[in-house]
Design goal:
single chain, mainly alpha
Amino acid sequence: MVEQALRELLSGPKRSVVAGPPIPVFHGQGVQPGVDLTDNAALEDLMNTRPDGTNETDIRIRPE
């Protein structure tokens, strides 16, 4: 009896499997030209570049 209670206590709470939200899948020909998924810094710069060519890091907040 003590052994069974100890097993239940140490096994932790019983968890049920809950499906998360669906993950969208995109089909196509691969990444756009000039995108290198192995270069994290270049990828971040590319993702932060606006359509007008400016980058988030180009805009600095001036101290008052």
